[in-house]
Amino acid sequence: MGVITLALIAAGWQSAEHAEPQLWVIVACAVTIALGTYMGGWRIIRTLGKGLTDVKPAQGFSAEASTASTILASSALGFALSTTQVASGSVIGSGLGRRGSTVRWRTAGRIAIGWLLTLPASGAVGALAALLVVWFGAVGIIVDAVLAVAIVLVLFLRSRRDEVHAGNAMSEVADSGLAVDVPSDPPPTRRQRREKAAAAAHTPTREEDR
């Protein structure tokens, strides 16, 4: 929303005295985020929940708590950060902290490469879109909109080939509860065994009674 508002102010379509995002900007951003989550949300859930490491309930809680704490602290201090990077780092950290868990560093490397390519790629796309507007004016805006819709449709149709949905995104989510399953008749602890042995040692036998 801030980038769109800044662009509107720079283009003279919005007064700098009223720098708050307009209602249509807020609605457009909300709808876009919702569509993005609908199109790729389950795929992201599978990548973070199973692709980086096998997240169990305890690790999921730890990752979410650390993500929320980091984002709230950075917001209070005025730092700009990516929630995706924070969440991914939290998941990796939770995987490293659980005994017997493994982190799939190849997947983490692919995510890091995507982060590195995002900035120059988005800059190149933005520059191309701006050039079309400069060269062709209003026609360039229409061309940008048509190209954007076409790219979104192609990506959406391609994602349908290997569809990820609620049924296969986390197929082991039911079994993950076993990580915190408490048996109905657990074995005695060391302290209980010591107390039982001490009680047996102080219990008088029949020969001692005689």
From TrEMBL:
The chain crosses the membrane at residues 23-42, 108-129, 135-157. This is Phosphate transporter. It comes from the Bacteria. It is a multi-pass membrane protein. One of its GO terms (cellular component) is membrane. It is found in: Membrane. One of its GO terms (molecular function) is phosphate transmembrane transporter activity. One of its GO terms (biological process) is phosphate ion transmembrane transport. The lineage of its organism: Bacteria, Bacillati, Actinomycetota, Actinomycetes, Micrococcales. Keywords: Membrane, Transmembrane, Transmembrane helix, Transport. Its main location: membrane. Residues 177-210 are annotated as: Disordered. InterPro entries: Phos_transporter (IPR001204).
